[in-house]
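Reply to dn_fold:

You asked what the input looked like. This is it:
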Amino acid sequence: MSEKELQKQKMQARLDELRAEADKLRAQADGASADAQLKLNEQLEAVQRKIDEGKTTLAALAEKGEQAWVSFKEKASSTWDTTKAAYEEGVSGSESEE
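and this is what came back:
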Protein backbone atom coordinates (compact mmCIF):
# COMPACT_ATOMS: atom_id res chain seq x y z
CA MET A 1 0.00 0.00 0.00
CA SER A 2 1.34 3.43 -0.91
CA GLU A 3 2.12 6.18 1.58
CA LYS A 4 -0.75 8.15 0.07
CA GLU A 5 -3.25 5.36 0.78
CA LEU A 6 -1.94 4.92 4.31
CA GLN A 7 -2.29 8.66 4.95
CA LYS A 8 -5.85 8.62 3.58
CA GLN A 9 -6.77 5.80 5.94
CA LYS A 10 -5.12 7.58 8.86
CA MET A 11 -6.96 10.84 8.12
CA GLN A 12 -10.29 9.02 7.76
CA ALA A 13 -9.78 7.31 11.11
CA ARG A 14 -8.95 10.66 12.73
CA LEU A 15 -12.06 12.27 11.25
CA ASP A 16 -14.21 9.38 12.48
CA GLU A 17 -12.71 9.73 15.94
CA LEU A 18 -13.28 13.47 15.93
CA ARG A 19 -16.92 13.02 14.89
CA ALA A 20 -17.46 10.61 17.78
CA GLU A 21 -15.92 13.04 20.25
CA ALA A 22 -18.04 15.90 18.85
CA ASP A 23 -21.12 13.72 19.42
CA LYS A 24 -20.07 13.31 23.05
CA LEU A 25 -19.78 17.08 23.41
CA ARG A 26 -23.25 17.50 21.91
CA ALA A 27 -24.61 15.11 24.51
CA GLN A 28 -22.89 17.13 27.24
CA ALA A 29 -24.42 20.32 25.88
CA ASP A 30 -27.89 18.79 26.12
CA GLY A 31 -27.53 18.49 29.89
CA ALA A 32 -25.71 21.77 30.49
CA SER A 33 -27.01 25.14 31.61
CA ALA A 34 -28.26 27.58 28.97
CA ASP A 35 -25.04 29.63 29.06
CA ALA A 36 -22.88 26.52 28.85
CA GLN A 37 -25.02 25.22 25.98
CA LEU A 38 -24.48 28.41 24.01
CA LYS A 39 -20.73 28.23 24.48
CA LEU A 40 -20.56 24.51 23.69
CA ASN A 41 -22.70 24.97 20.59
CA GLU A 42 -20.37 27.70 19.32
CA GLN A 43 -17.36 25.47 19.92
CA LEU A 44 -19.09 22.53 18.27
CA GLU A 45 -19.86 24.64 15.21
CA ALA A 46 -16.17 25.52 14.97
CA VAL A 47 -15.21 21.86 15.31
CA GLN A 48 -17.78 20.90 12.67
CA ARG A 49 -16.33 23.45 10.25
CA LYS A 50 -12.91 21.92 10.81
CA ILE A 51 -14.30 18.41 10.29
CA ASP A 52 -15.79 19.62 7.01
CA GLU A 53 -12.41 21.07 6.02
CA GLY A 54 -10.79 17.75 6.86
CA LYS A 55 -13.32 15.91 4.70
CA THR A 56 -12.61 18.30 1.83
CA THR A 57 -8.89 17.76 2.26
CA LEU A 58 -9.37 14.00 2.31
CA ALA A 59 -11.46 14.14 -0.88
CA ALA A 60 -8.80 16.28 -2.55
CA LEU A 61 -6.17 13.77 -1.50
CA ALA A 62 -7.99 11.07 -3.44
CA GLU A 63 -7.63 13.17 -6.59
CA LYS A 64 -3.90 13.84 -6.23
CA GLY A 65 -1.33 11.80 -8.11
CA GLU A 66 1.74 10.44 -6.39
CA GLN A 67 3.86 13.32 -7.76
CA ALA A 68 1.69 15.99 -6.11
CA TRP A 69 1.34 13.95 -2.93
CA VAL A 70 4.44 15.27 -1.13
CA SER A 71 3.41 18.93 -1.18
CA PHE A 72 -0.22 18.07 -0.55
CA LYS A 73 0.70 15.98 2.50
CA GLU A 74 1.91 19.11 4.30
CA LYS A 75 -1.40 20.88 3.75
CA ALA A 76 -3.34 17.84 4.90
CA SER A 77 -1.26 17.64 8.05
CA SER A 78 -1.82 21.33 8.76
CA THR A 79 -5.58 20.95 8.30
CA TRP A 80 -5.63 18.05 10.74
CA ASP A 81 -3.62 20.03 13.30
CA THR A 82 -6.10 22.92 13.23
CA THR A 83 -9.05 20.51 13.37
CA LYS A 84 -7.58 18.76 16.41
CA ALA A 85 -6.81 22.10 18.10
CA ALA A 86 -10.40 23.31 17.57
CA TYR A 87 -11.72 20.11 19.10
CA GLU A 88 -9.37 20.27 22.08
CA GLU A 89 -10.38 23.89 22.67
CA GLY A 90 -14.00 22.76 22.71
CA VAL A 91 -13.23 20.00 25.20
CA SER A 92 -11.26 22.26 27.54
CA GLY A 93 -13.99 24.91 27.34
CA SER A 94 -16.70 22.41 28.19
CA GLU A 95 -14.76 21.13 31.18
CA SER A 96 -14.44 24.61 32.63
CA GLU A 97 -18.21 25.12 32.31
CA GLU A 98 -19.07 22.12 34.48
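Residues 3-97 form one domain.
Hope that clears it up.
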